Amino acid sequence: MRKHMLDQREEFNSILPEYGRRKLLTYADSIRELAGSFKETEGNQEILLKKEPADRKDYIWQKRLIENKELMVAHLQEMAQIMTGLAEETRRCVPMGERRFKQVAHALKEVDIQIRNLYLIENESGRMEVSLTMKNIRENHLSAEDVADLLSVLLGMHLVSAQDNAFFVGMDWQTFYYVEEAKFHVLTGVAKAVKETERISGDNYAFFERDTGNLTAVLSDGMGSGEKACLDSTMVVELMQKFLEAGFQMEVAIQMINSALLGGGENANMSTLDLCSLDLYNGECRFVKVGSASSYIKRQHLVDRISSGNLPLGIFQKPDMEVVGRTLMDGDYIIMVSDGVLDALSQGIGEDMLSELIGGSNLENPGEMANALLNFCIHQCRGHIRDDMTILVIGIWKKND
User: Fold this and answer.
1) How far, in Å, CA of 261 to CA of 42, rounded?
2) Among 60-64, 164-168, 354-358, where is mean pLDDT lowest?
3) Does CATH place domain 184-398 in 3.60.40.10?
């Protein structure tokens, strides 16, 4: 058994061998060199643009070409950085004693689970992960979450199944990953109203996990209303989710989405971006705003208003982003709204009173809170919904130990 445990550690070290790391770093260097070659040609073209243009159309075309190459350079550099980060990613294997391994193997065999490899891994954040290769001896439909509960008891730590795991443990060998349970849990609520002259809302939103223990909320308001606004805001939300889940840095993802909106030519439209990324391990959250309405953090009856003064995506070649960080506590709420909500309030009491309205709410369920705020706005504008309205509410609570 001791030799088996040593073999396990050797196998762990070969998950990304030195040859593989060097290959990834070589690819990254090649991509950086390609980005550098684009920069060199940019410098030559910028010298030409400083001269008096003989042809106005040719000047505009050359200028746009330079701007597109700048975007290409940024994208290539980001790809190289992702490869470098993957190659340099470190994990520390925590040795497991022979007796403990036998206990886990025996306990899982009692529920018809056979294991082959079991690793305790400390990730870069200092949190523990478990990698377990196993299969079902009999078809008993044991889920990955059932195994997580067993491992939590056997290993003395609160574990949950990673989001990429299969739901059930199958009859073939398969590797499952388990991570420490986050300190906080959340509930979300949404309320929407469509502009009275339209059938479809120009607002779109999404809640998703970039990584285990992270919740990201994205809200986009397509400028105008109807189907065209909906298509633009849908593109912003869907691309943002795909880029972030793929590992792109937030700033680069926003730049690429902005380029996609600009690429629409005369048919292009503008869209706002309101993003909140919440770390459920420590309660840290980050707001990223591009032309969006104010967001709010409710702590009992106190309200923190987070505003931005920049313009939406799809206007300038380089979008202006405002980033704000906050630390949340047990029982806090995050409220994100589209412009239509503030427009509705401006017909009466004014948007400055929204903070007071949120602070005075005694509702605890995020869905009920979102609906109550929306109903108040509709009542305030006397039922005339002049713009799409969307309200997202996220409630965060500390888990009981």
Assistant:
1) 23
2) 60-64
3) yes
